[in-house]
Amino acid sequence: MARKSEVTSKRAATAASKVLQNPNTSKAAKSAAGSALSQRKAPVKVSSAKAATAASKTLSSSSTSKKAKTSAGSALTQKPDKKK
User: What is the spatial distance between Cα 75 and Cα 82, in angstroms, rounded to a whole number?
Assistant: First the structure.
């Protein structure tokens, strides 16, 4: 698995925390937010394929909040590169 040196920014981590606290947030958004939050200060961690899929669904949904999309974007940028 390829390693990424990226970490979740403070802004994205704050957004992810608020997404996780909101009882009305979708399961996909919470999965992506959890992945982003777990990578706050861990540059060797990467998002799993399942979390990346959840992040993609969150970003493509028109009913998702800006905070959910912020944390999903962070999780998605930290997924491993595809093998060639």
Answer: 15
Domain map of the chain by residue range?
Answer: 10-77
C-alpha of 7 from chain center: 11
pLDDT in tens, 56-67: 999 999 999 999
Q: What is the number of alpha carbons within 13 Å of residue 51 lying toward its C-beta?
A: 24
**51 CA to centre of own chain:** 7
With bands split at pLDDT 50, 70 and 90, how would you rate the model's confidence at 2? low
**Residue 23: what pLDDT?**
95
- As a whole number of angstroms, the distance between CA 16 and CA 3 comes to 22
User: What is the rounded CA–CA span in Å between residue 34 and residue 36?
Assistant: 5
